Amino acid sequence: MIALLLALGSSLAYGCADFLGGLGARKAHVLRTVMVAAPASLAVELLLWPVLGASFSPAAVGWGAASGVASAAAFALLYKTLAIGPMNVLSPVTALVSAALPVAVGLLEGEHPGPAGLLGLPLALVAVVLVSAGHSAGSSRPSRTALLLAFGAGAAIALQLISLHQAPSDSGVAPLVIGRAVSSAVTLTAAGLLHRRLGPEKPAYALSATAGVLDSLANLLFLLASRSGDLTVVAVITALYPAGTVLLARNVLAERIHKGQLVGLGTAAVAVSLLALT
Questions:
Q1: CA–CA distance, 163 with 65 (Å, rounded to integer)
Q2: Of the candidates 238, 229, 103, 217, the residue with the CA atom closest to the CA atom of residue 169
Q3: What are the tens digits of pLDDT across the range 229-238?
Q4: Region of poorest pLDDT, from 50-59, 192-201, 211-220
Q5: Cβ proximity of 184 and 39 under 8 Å
């Protein structure tokens, strides 16, 4: 139950972070947004270091660095995806891809969900599909480029989560600190090399920084959840984060929600209830 609650918290934080990051990427080049978000996320994790502790073993550093490279790719791909829009389609597509790989890894590692879990896991994946499938007559359809970016973002997110899960359980926040330091370095280096292509627009500092803080919180909650529960369950619950993004996009940007998406949200609630019984 603790792992379930942590995963739900991670899902909520990811959904809010993605929404704010997508808005920020609409106001300036995506790298300008990430240049603010990644260091803000690192600052949060450095503040958590003395509170939660950190053990920088070779395994923690290695897996943390791997998560950082994946995180940098995920930041850029995801925010660019959401900037193109529509958010209420592309975010769930990304989530479906990001859930499938960790679930597969968990099953390959020998995790065996109980009867309720065997029903809840596919239901949760179906929920993500339903949320992503909704188009009403007034909704815009995503371009092929946007869909490819969404799949790439999902794969990068999956690799980040898998890397964090593989880090030693006694390493504290070391994987997060290393990961965010690496992703910040990669982002700043890329921005330096491409500075002439970033345009004159200034980033939305408040939106971008808040997105980074929420992303850091989401990573922490996922790390704690994966250490106290099965990756298969934690990953698929975390992947429900588009529910928050979709609802925010509906209320703030007036993006339409299809009836099928509402069914998906209800299916997600049933799936989480079943997984709670696992």
A1: 9
A2: 229
A3: 888 888 888 8
A4: 192-201
A5: yes
Nearest Cα to 125, choosing from 268, 266, 270, 277? 268
Q: What is the pLDDT of residue 222?
A: 92
Interacting residues of 143 by C-beta distance below 8 A, sequence separation 6+? 84
Sign for the CA dihedral angle at 7, 8, 13, 15 comes to: positive
DSSP classification of residue 54: B
What does pTM read for this prediction? 0.80
Cα–Cα distances in angstroms (integers) from residue 238 to residues 57, 59, 157, 218, 253, in the given order: 27, 24, 11, 9, 24
Q: Where are the alpha helices (DSSP H) in the chain?
A: 2-27, 30-52, 58-84, 87-108, 115-133, 144-166, 174-193, 205-228, 231-238, 242-253, 259-276
Taking Cα atoms as reference points, which of 168, 205, 181 lies closest to residue 72? Answer: 181
Whether the CB-CB separation of 3 and 233 falls below 8 Å is answered with yes
Angle at 68 between CA 62 and CA 72, to 5 degrees: 155
Residue pair 6/193 in contact (Cβ under 8 Å)? The answer is no
